[in-house]
Amino acid sequence: MGGQKRPVEPPASTIRYTGAMSRAAKKITLNVPEDLLLDAQKMTGLGITETVVLGLEELRRRKKRHALLALRGKVDFDLDLTKTRR
Q1: Domains contained in the chain, number
Q2: pLDDT tens digit sequence for 21-58
């Protein structure tokens, strides 16, 4: 058994979508303010699921941006732009 790891199977409650949502997905029930959801759908032009996924992805991106901004002034780069651009 040469140390090969078997792929972990997703839980039975996980649904697999095709297309834009090709990764494993979890089916959930949400109670959200109707006006908020409708506004988001109008802004994105997407359906309910796609709009919610887009919002969750944006939260993830925002957290990463904040983590990067927290590093501002803490990382010292010694970079010669003239040499880099050659």
Answers
A1: 1
A2: 667 888 899 999 999 999 999 999 999 999 999 999 99
Range of the domain at 42: 30-71
**Residue 52 domain-assigned (yes or no):** yes
pLDDT over threshold 90, residue 18 = no
Please enumerate in sequence order all residues whose Cβ is within 8 A of that of 51, keeping only pairs 6 or more positions apart, or say none: 37, 40, 41, 44
Report DSSP state, residue 83: H
Give how far the C-alpha of residue 34 lies from the chain's centroid of Cα atoms, to the nearest Å: 23
- The identity of residue 19, as a single letter, is G
Model-wide pTM > 0.85:
no
The strand pairing partners of 17, in sequence order, are: none
Helices (H), 23-76: 34-44, 48-70
* Residue 85 counted as domain residue: no
Q: Is 15 helix (H, G, I), strand (E, B) or coil?
A: strand
